[in-house]
Amino acid sequence: MGLVLLVVIWLITLVGSYFIIAKTWWLPVGASAAAAGIDHHFTITYILMGAVFIAAQLALGWFAWKYRDRGAGSRQAEYSHGNTTLEVVWTVLTVILFVGMNLASEPIWSSERLQGAHPGAVQVEVTAMQFAWYFRYAGPDGKFGATKPELEDASLGGAGALGLDPADPASKDDVISGVMVVPVNREIEVILRSHDVIHSFFVPAMRFKQDAVPGLAIHMHFTPIQTGDYELACAELCGLGHYKMHGIVKVVSDQEFSQWLAAQEAEKQ
Amino acid sequence: MAGGTGGGEAITMVSHDAHAAPQGFIRKWVFSLDHKVIGIQYFFLALVAVFTGMFLSLLMRIHLVWPNAHLPILGDIKPETYLSLLTMHGTIMVFFVLTTAPQGGFGNYFLPIQIGAPDMAFPVLNMLSFWTTFLGFVVLVAAFFVTGGAPLHGWTGYAPLSALQSAGPGEGLGADLWIISIAIFCIGALMGALNFITTTLDMRAKGMTLMRMPLTCWAWFITAILGLLAFGVLLSAGILLLMDRNLGTSFFVPLGTVNGVLTGHKGGSPLLWQHLFWFFGHPEVYIAILPAMGLCSQLLSVFSRKPIFGYKAMVYAIMAIGFLGFMVWGHHMFMSGMSPYSAFAFSIMTMGIGVPSAIKTFNWLGTLWRGRIRFSSPMLFAIGFVSLFVVGGISGPFLAQPVLDIYLHETFFVIAHFHLIMGVASIFGIFAATYYWFPKMFGRMMNETLAKTHFLLTFIGAYCIFMPMHFSGMAALLRRYSQYTEVAWMHKTDGLNHFITYAAFVTIASQFIFLFNLFWSMFKGEKAVDNPWEATTLEWTTATPPPHDNFGGITPVVYNGPYEYSVPGAPKDFVMQTDAQVGAKKH
Q: What is the set of domains in chain A, with CATH numbers?
């Protein structure tokens, strides 16, 4: 049975490690400024934790086989209550490993989450509701018009769904879209809102995720560095239509973005 | 903590008028005051619950890969049905299996015996806590059969989804029943926790100092403290949620609309629910796993015929895990809109809790080192536990780092992590406990061949189910999606999903080997001797099954630590805790 355990545990370790090293299933290619740093930290964590995983499993399988009871001829087990020196060494090493890994990742967290968007970032208000995403741009006046919950009517779509207040002059030039169009290489400031329950705005290629919480307007930012269409999906259970609450982030050149925005504006008039 | 009870000092037992053995069937088997009967009742409740929960997971796996399948009797599984299944699966497994079996079941049966007590400190409270828990289970299952069905808000019940009737089907009476069930469960768990703490502190036999307690008892004791502090918070949160739903309060619901209709609430905070829930929810993880850690420490020592490596370090690690367990809840909320500054603190604390966990793993390997390992079925599950604990543990530091959690949060990587460590590893603890203590509880041995087959199929099966989930998580497959038909990137993992479902079929089928073995052995198993595993702790000194007062009128006196194996010069390779001669020489 010791041999069976050795074979099974080692085989599981081997197969598991293979798929990680081969990256058979992996993160999509990163398309945001933060992606490289995050992916690098992923790799470091994988190497460190992978080493712990392999070492512990190999030792477990090996000990199970090596120290099996071999019947009458077997040596008696060693009478030992442990080893304090080893215990201390092990604890210190673990502390260094875990805390070190954590500290190494903090600069990324700081730049992504502690610092706000720079002035001049493109502002997009992302509103989630069962089971749709709406994206709003402030328009030429640079101001988002007021919205009122009592005016919300999802069946109207667009401005009606957001409950945009027509009485507010700032609302006149607001652009509302079902697709998130953003310019490449510009910082995007996302203002996340939700009407009803908690949703979560997740764009894997941007390595970006943030819950949209009713009652809160959460400001976040990311910088796309590659043009293309990137799928987004809701990552927080929000009801029966959760599985189909997805959308597209369309990253285009700065010029195309301006043209698109102008066209939307013109369509409104 | 030990107060005046350290060293080899004798302990005065509190006077305990052990209740007389009951005669009638009702008093003996239904409304019993005997901790052993209550332990068995908890065990069978958990058994019914685990097969229910497992059946729900089977339906989920079927639906995920064949979303349009028409099932016999059950018909079609709609998206909302799928969400009800996952809600009920999670709730049943976490509360009525992982919290019920290790603590209520085995803890109830063996804590008093292992510390040399005739019963729990409060037998009536003990009976009440079981029947309260049972009622909680009945109320929960009832949610399936009311109009609208079971709730779809997940076992975490995030508000406002869980607070608004209009948020979806199942959020009507089903959701109320769900909250009431959890509240009832909390009351039962609080009564149980009080009983365990008092029993451990006050009912230990002479010579059973805290530092001579088996690690199982330490684990049950610390788990009870966690339960006492955590379930009260969940109970309060549940009551507030119930008020939001039915009395028009707005603790968790801000101004908003559902489908363009104003909800009538304003000013509440959805994040408040998450803070309260996870203040319970994270310690709950340790409530589920600590008893398994204690038991597996015990078994690795027994079956390696070696003292546990670093007994004191193990005790301190249990305490550290319990203590730190209350300071890490925010790591569930890195993406919730909580202050990103607090993520620093929660992240460091979470990495910190990895340290005592790593110490334990190291000591388990150290216990095997130079042992003389006997591969009886409890030992196989204990070794399996270590393997699963390692694989489930090493994904922790990924999720504990907010930077990586940005991507991994709510993906299958999380599902892999918590199922392996909190689910499967704890279940392996329950299996190990069943195979180990069955002879004492039922007086017969379980069949070893069936047990070993069950172990291998379950061990390999669990890996086949949960290992691939790390990969699909890396590929951004999101949890709580009733089907993967809509989002393009989620098709990449279709192959993995099929593999997982097939693995689930085999693994679930092999649990019937266990079920058969359990009931067959109860009546037809080989008769057990009093100490079949040649172990040292007190339960193996008494008759099989133990008499009503546990030790047949004798009060045991303890002279030794719990893990005296292969003591040089001793006549046998194990020294009972009650063995005065050898013990007197040694300590």
A: 2-67+83-114 (no CATH), 122-268 (2.60.40.420)
